[in-house]
Amino acid sequence: RKEVEQDPGPFNVPEGATVAFNCTYSNSASQSFFWYRQDCRKEPKLLMSVYSSGNEDGRFTAQLNRASQYISLLIRDSKLSDSATYLCAVEKGGYQKVTFGTGTKLQVIP
Amino acid sequence: DAGVIQSPRHEVTEMGQEVTLRCKPISGHDYLFWYRQTMMRGLELLIYFNNNVPIDDSGMPEDRFSAKMPNASFSTLKIQPSEPRDSAVYFCASSLWILTGGLPQHFGDGTRLSIL
Asked: What residues in B contact A89, CB-CB < 8 Å?
């Protein structure tokens, strides 16, 4: 089993829709979690950290489910500009070593 | 504020040649990471440094790859000799460890490497 797994997609959604991605991780000792956004032929950019209590940043909501070992990203009111690949990243506790998922591709359609 | 700076942005060279990639992390960051990204394998961690010291190089593919961080503001990733399968985008990222937030990373623009 891979350390970090994501559905590659693509997720094709209409503008204004709500879409959610999950990311599962295998190491229960994982401590820190992140979502990154990567546009085509660009570098990954930090979108948000994921906190135990869940956190929200505008139209984006991230949640952590330790019992089932996954994190999620919810995007409300999708915009065309949200089209990108979303990478999750998981940091193993005590090692400061981050493993990235292979990403989920989102395409928002007019 | 200046972000992570990588050079060169593009590199095309022939098999067997030495390739050196360069990275300047964000000032004050104490972690530096080197990644390789391909369509097939995604984003792979090659090596990371903490306070200029290599901590984990288990992701370095083989002895042809080496990385150094002589000071807090500069790191290199060297491939010698290069092979066509090394063609990829190489990213450098830096981070400042946050007690309650781990290692949010900031990436450079990457170096697109093509080995002919």
From this structure: 105
